Amino acid sequence: MPGKTLHLAVALDGLGWHPAAWRLSSADAGSPFTARYWTTLAGEAEHAALDLLTIEDALDLQSSRFDGPDGRTDQLRGRLDAVQIAARLAPLTRHIGLVPTTSTTHTEPFHLCTAVATLDHVSGGRAGWRPRVSARRAEAEHFGRREIPVLDPARLDDPEAVRLVGDLFAEAGDAVEVVRRLWDSWQDDAEIRDVSTGRFVDRERLHHVDFVGQWFSVKGPSIVPRSPQGQPVVAALAHASVPYAFAARHADVVFVTPTDAAHVSAIVAEIRATEETVGRADPPLRILADLVVLLDETPTLARHRGARLDELHGAEFTSDAAVFAGTPGQLADLLAEWHRAGVDGFRLRPGVLPDDLTAITRTLVPALRDRGLFRAGYPGGTLRDLLGLPRPANRYAVAATT
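-> structure tokens emitted (402 positions)
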């Protein structure tokens, strides 16, 4: 059973998760391409003491199709790089965790290691990372290094699709393993910085990771010294058994997509069983449930907002996560129910930004505090501290003493 209070995160993407969000947003349509927009969102989230924010990213343009451009000109297209956004937010925030999304399919682990470790340094220990696989041909065609067939979402159980998805997650697992080894390739005391002796670094405390696998061969060490958290927080989005296993092996936090309280219990049970199956030695995954939220003062107004957005979109909006339309009080009751069913917290996806984020921070959060479900402020420390995760010992330092 979860503790008394829950973890609360927000997922930021463009002008909101609904495809027509830009049509009703109180922000200017071009604001997602400005630094001020992102700093304003982060400041709003931090003012409410949210645990972390995630920043979506992909290597192809947004589309209403599963793969490839849809030709639509009535929806937001284009985005800024998630890691670069997080780097901009780091010196302008003090407490909130910053978790950008990157692809493991078309990005080298060494680059991922240095980018996220740098973010952890400049944020003072608040960096996270959400690795994602890129299963779309449209993304692969931007690089020309590999062939990825077009997947039919209705036939993902076909043997070829199962093989491809399995390979992509296996590759992602190797990528995370390489990144984690590189994060440890500098011991905490590798930097001597002794001007009198002229010794800046102890070469014996820098380590080659010497990883050789099917997809990567990486020698190391990293060019970035070990960061404040030692290992920045790794988060994964998971919907089914293969990504559950990936999260159990490689992540600290998993975002899941239940539809009701019974589904919450089933997912939590499956993830805990998967942790045992893969022999997880790390602390148990922090399980956060995703919800797309459209909030208003009354249920009728919230439903009308959703209907208007759907009308502008030209179809009913569906998502991998459940869509909630109602009042902040109703949402607080739902979160309490799901929290009792077993999740450690929630990652809320605002349907329209900044409007639904403001409703979360200024109305939902107080409602949760009134129910004793969310803390009043930040206790201090790193993102790991905030999530109740210990700072891992350096694997190479441990090996040297055994």
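The domain at 7-133+232-400 is CATH 3.20.20.30 (TIM Barrel).
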